[in-house]
């Protein structure tokens, strides 16, 4: 599932391409909204809320989409050939005189009134890349269930919105805790640092074309110039701290990477 920085970048591309333009093409290829016609409406903005995308139009309408595992929005210049998958995977087409946005394999696509947006994103915790970011609320949410595993608590978008599986693994490594450690076993300073580090990592990657956690600070960048991530995707390779081989566990189709020496707590 895309991380919050990926969704943020997608929203930024959509906003840059469509905002202020008048729709010349509106094609929503899902049965419930197949007859909806947004042609002639001005696109107001496209914004990310956690891992959700909200594209707003004049007249008080919002197109809500979620990428989940396979979805993607591609933006093309007028007349440019579309590239992103076969036509049968297209779920939405929004075009102005200059650009066309094509939504591929979108598992969630719905048109709603802008005033009803809270029905689809109101459950989310503070957005790590949003104007509502509140570290105190995020920390309180994270610690609300002491028996819950750290990894699960980080991935729960109701606690803080934007952390996906990559950042979860990287954050746990940086905190020297396995993802299966109960949240209640974290010291308050460590839990606070976990939240602040999550914010730091997503901020550092919000405009990067290639995600990195090792280069989130200048000191790390100088020490590890050739490594982008600490543990994610590095199974069997030496830990960047201790050289112990990184391990991987798959549960519910979600891979989890960790260092058995650097990280304390239960293992899987």
Automatic annotation (TrEMBL):
PROSITE patterns: FPG_CAT, ZF_FPG_2. Residues 2-103 form the Formamidopyrimidine-DNA glycosylase catalytic domain. Pfam families: Fapy_DNA_glyco, H2TH, zf-FPG_IleRS. Residues 230-264 form the FPG-type domain. It comes from the Bacteria. One of its GO terms (molecular function) is damaged DNA binding. Keywords: DNA damage, DNA repair, DNA-binding, Glycosidase, Hydrolase, Lyase, Metal-binding, Multifunctional enzyme, Zinc, Zinc-finger. This is DNA-(apurinic or apyrimidinic site) lyase.
């Amino acid at each position: 599932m895309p991380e919050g920085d990926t969704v943020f970048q997608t929203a930024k591309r959509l906003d840059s391409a469509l905002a202020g333009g008048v729709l010349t093409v509106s094609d929503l290829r899902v049965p419930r909204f197949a007859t909806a016609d947004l042609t002639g409406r001005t696109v107001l903005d496209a914004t990310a809320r956690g891992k959700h995308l909200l594209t707003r139009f004049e007249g008080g309408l919002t197109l809500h989409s979620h990428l989940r595992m396979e979805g993607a929005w591609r933006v093309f210049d007028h007349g440019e050939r579309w590239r992103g998958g076969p036509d049968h995977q297209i779920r939405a087409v929004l075009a102005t005189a200059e650009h066309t946005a094509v939504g591929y394999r979108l598992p969630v696509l719905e048109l709603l009134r802008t005033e009803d947006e809270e029905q689809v994103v109101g459950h989310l915790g503070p957005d790590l890349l949003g104007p509502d970011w509140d570290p105190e609320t995020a920390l309180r949410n994270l610690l609300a269930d002491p028996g819950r595993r750290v990894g699960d608590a980080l991935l729960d978008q109701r606690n803080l919105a934007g952390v996906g599986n990559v950042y979860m693994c990287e954050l746990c490594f940086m905190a020297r805790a396995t993802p299966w450690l109960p949240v209640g076993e974290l010291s308050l300073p460590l839990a606070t640092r976990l939240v602040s580090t999550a914010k730091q990592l997503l901020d550092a990657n919000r405009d990067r074309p290639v995600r990195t956690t090792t280069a989130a600070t200048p000191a790390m960048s100088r020490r590890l110039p050739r490594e982008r991530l600490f543990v994610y995707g590095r199974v069997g390779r030496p830990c960047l701290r201790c050289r112990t081989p990184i391990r991987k566990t798959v549960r519910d189709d979600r891979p989890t990477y960790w260092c058995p020496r650097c990280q304390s707590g239960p293992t899987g």
